[in-house]
């Protein structure tokens, strides 16, 4: 089971570049210098779709209100593709800051233990392929794999766009393609980063039956207008990824008001809460060192939580290539999430994880 293979330390593989910390040069190397040529038709197709990342998100679009994005059209698109998002367990991550790093760290933990991991994030630096990774290397989805995926799905996507009167967006179509790829590649688990907010984000079609855990890293003022105009409305939007009976890991630190909003949502959905700021967690940076010309912080973690989901581990030498106290906190959040997954399997609380990850 998953718990038997959790690493004794959250050490990252040497030379691995995570999330938004990569440079353009290193990203090109990570992509293997692969020609994008076969994807020309795919890029042209995607360019014709409405792209709110470029045009700006409308007021209130990320809120769970009449102004919010319509998740119905996303569900209808996925239905035409065979509901691929129901074929794998998922960890759903939202947050103003830190969600990309937390997703990358958690994906690394799972890959290091030999699991076939699907990862979906946004935005990208050089190529949209960076948003999807699948398998053990963590690199951008290969050109040919994405090209074949699109060719096989194009007819269904065309039909969906016509039926939705052209309202399907760039983000919705690409999110659906990522779910389809994870299904076809039979991933053991998918780590999915929300785009905007949470409640009305296209990724929030994940049902409680497939959700292994939700994670909320931080709540800040980014996309304030699109998410309702206040920190409280942003917290409500992000807590929309919490699902009935499934655990939520909160990163933080949060103000008391914001944390209470998240905990209130968890209470309504009967979802266990694991806080990465729990008094039973200790972490500090022991030193900054260098490896092959790259700096890293060597950290100590002790996690001993006895609340909703008991978690316990001590890790003395974690070599974290993402620097700063905030990245250490992201690593704690990722570690709590991985431990939460282990506990769920061990305790038999998630049949999906038992069947997929045993």
Automatic annotation (TrEMBL):
Superkingdom of source: Eukaryota
GO MF entries: ATP binding; tetrahydrofolylpolyglutamate synthase activity
Keywords of the record: ATP-binding, Ligase, Nucleotide-binding
Domain Mur ligase central: 93-337
InterPro entries linked: Folylpolyglutamate_synth, Folylpolyglutamate_synth_CS, Mur-like_cat_sf, Mur_ligase_cen
NCBIfam families documented for this protein: folC
Family membership noted in the UniProt record: Belongs to the folylpolyglutamate synthase family.
Name of this protein: Mur ligase central domain-containing protein
Species per Swiss-Prot/TrEMBL record: Zea mays
The organism's taxonomic lineage, starting at the top: Eukaryota, Viridiplantae, Streptophyta, Embryophyta, Tracheophyta
């Amino acid at each position: 089971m998953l718990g038997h293979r959790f690493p004794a330390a959250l050490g990252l593989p040497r030379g691995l570049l995570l999330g938004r910390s990569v440079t353009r040069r290193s990203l090109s190397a990570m992509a293997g210098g692969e020609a994008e040529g076969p994807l020309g038709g795919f890029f042209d197709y995607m360019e014709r779709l409405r792209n709110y990342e470029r045009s700006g998100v409308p007021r209130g679009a990320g809120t769970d209100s009449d102004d919010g994005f319509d998740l119905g059209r996303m569900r209808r698109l996925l239905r035409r593709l065979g509901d691929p998002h129901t074929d794998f367990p998922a960890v759903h991550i939202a947050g103003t800051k830190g969600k990309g790093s937390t997703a990358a760290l958690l994906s690394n933990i799972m890959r290091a233990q030999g699991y076939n991991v699907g990862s979906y994030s946004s935005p990208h630096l050089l190529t949209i392929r960076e948003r999807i990774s699948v398998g053990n290397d963590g690199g951008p989805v290969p050109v040919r794999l994405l090209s074949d995926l699109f060719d096989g799905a194009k007819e269904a996507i065309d039909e969906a766009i016509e039926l939705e009167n052209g309202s399907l967006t760039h983000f919705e179509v690409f999110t659906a393609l990522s779910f389809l790829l994870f299904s076809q590649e039979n991933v053991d688990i998918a780590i999915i980063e929300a785009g905007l907010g949470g409640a009305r984000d296209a990724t929030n079609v994940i049902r409680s039956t497939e959700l292994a855990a939700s994670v909320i890293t931080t709540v800040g003022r980014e996309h304030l207008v699109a998410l309702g105009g206040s920190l409280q409305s942003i917290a409500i939007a992000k807590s929309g990824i919490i699902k009935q009976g499934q655990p939520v890991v909160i990163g933080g630190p949060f103000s008391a008001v914001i944390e209470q909003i998240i905990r209130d949502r968890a209470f309504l959905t009967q979802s266990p809460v694991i806080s990465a700021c729990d008094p039973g967690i200790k972490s500090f940076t022991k030193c900054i060192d260098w490896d092959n010309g790259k700096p890293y912080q060597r950290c100590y973690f002790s996690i001993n939580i006895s609340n909703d989901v008991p978690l316990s581990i001590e890790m003395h030498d974690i070599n974290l290539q993402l620097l700063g106290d905030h990245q250490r906190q992201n690593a704690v959040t990722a570690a709590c999430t991985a431990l939460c997954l282990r506990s769920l399997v061990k305790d038999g609380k998630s049949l999906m994880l038992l069947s997929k990850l045993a």
